[in-house]
Design goal:
The chain is mainly α and about 140 residues long. The chain has two domains: about 90 residues, no CATH class; about 40 residues, no CATH class. It is built from six helices and no strands. The model has no long low-confidence stretch (mean pLDDT about 90).
Length: about 140
């Protein structure tokens, strides 16, 4: 089975790396301002992605990118930056085992935004899964 085009394979790897991100960030942010830690992480990501693009021969001018695409990628970048700043600040003062699941309330919000803004559709079973993610995050917060 070729996994290179399997969305679930890449999503699962994303989850693994996100979990490692939380653990590594919690340890790393302990002795530094959370905003400085976010900056360092961002520089590492930028350099790493640049090296990957160079190694794969994909580094080129984005001249053919539409204005609409630029606008939404810039908005996505701004949202990512805001998310990371908030995430690192939360890790600075809270337990990683609680911060990361609450951060995953983004799953619930993406489902709601996807349906309302993008016209996506979820089945009843999929909504149940989204609901369980939300309930799980809330239970972690109220029990902590």
């Amino acid at each position: 089975m070729d996994l290179s085009d399997a969305w679930w394979f890449w999503a699962l790897l994303s989850a693994v790396f996100a979990a490692l991100t939380a653990i590594f960030a919690k340890v790393g942010v302990a002795g530094i301002d959370s905003d400085v830690a976010t900056f360092i992480r961002t520089v590492v990501i930028l350099v790493t992605l640049g090296l990957i693009l160079l190694a794969l021969g994909k580094f080129h001018s984005p001249g053919g990118v539409s204005t609409r695409t630029w606008i939404f990628l810039v908005l996505s970048g701004l949202a990512t930056g805001a998310s990371w700043i908030c995430y690192f600040r939360a890790l600075k003062v809270g337990d990683a085992a609680l911060v990361a699941p609450v951060d995953k309330l983004s799953v619930v919000l993406v489902a709601i935004f996807g349906v309302t803004l993008l016209g996506e559709r979820l089945s009843g079973l999929q909504w149940a899964g989204v609901g369980l993610v939300g309930v799980g995050a809330v239970l972690l917060v109220v029990s902590g």
